[in-house]
């Protein structure tokens, strides 16, 4: 393994290798046939069922400008109507706490800068984004 790369495993899925990039981890999944599939969270494309592709980096760039924001990652999430939707995972500045009101404020901040259909449909708050794992998200996020 290279420095900053950690192997993770779970009995219900193939081995996963997490490479720490200093911001958002990159996950590499080692399939049973030894092929590597790398997907950087911030490079994923959200594919909506209506043919619209949403690029997380575009949303992250807007959210990063919000004065309460310390760090952000936008991820894809399943959506029963559209196939996938964008979710924002954010770390706030100076120990600020997340709330429904702040989530609404952040979504409105994005909506003022880019097309409405690209706005994340939910926001989750984490204490440290660099230590974030998908399993750390609150239920219902």
TrEMBL record:
Signal peptide: none annotated. GO terms for molecular function: ATP binding; fatty acid ligase activity; fatty-acyl-CoA synthase activity. GO terms for biological process: acyl-CoA metabolic process; fatty acid biosynthetic process. The keyword rRNA-binding does not apply. Belongs to the ATP-dependent AMP-binding enzyme family. Pfam families: AMP-binding_C (PF13193). This is AMP-binding enzyme C-terminal domain-containing protein. Gene3D superfamilies: 3.30.300.30. Residues 58-129 form the AMP-binding enzyme C-terminal domain. Keywords: ATP-binding, Ligase, Nucleotide-binding. It comes from Mycobacterium saskatchewanense. InterPro entries: AMP-bd_C, AMP-bd_C_sf, Mitochondrial_ACSM.
């Amino acid at each position: 393994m290279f420095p900053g790369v950690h192997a993770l495993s779970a009995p219900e899925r193939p081995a996963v290798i997490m490479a720490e990039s200093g911001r958002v981890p990159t996950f590499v999944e080692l399939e049973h046939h030894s092929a590597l599939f790398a997907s950087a969270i911030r490079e994923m494309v959200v594919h909506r069922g209506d043919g619209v592709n949403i690029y997380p980096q575009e949303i992250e760039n807007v959210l990063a400008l919000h004065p309460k924001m310390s760090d952000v990652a936008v991820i894809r999430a399943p959506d029963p109507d559209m196939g996938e939707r964008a979710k924002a995972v954010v770390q706030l500045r100076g120990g600020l706490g997340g709330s429904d009101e702040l989530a609404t404020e952040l979504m409105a901040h994005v909506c003022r800068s880019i097309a409405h259909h690209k706005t994340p449909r939910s926001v989750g708050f984490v204490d440290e984004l660099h230590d974030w794992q998908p399993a750390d998200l609150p239920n219902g996020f």
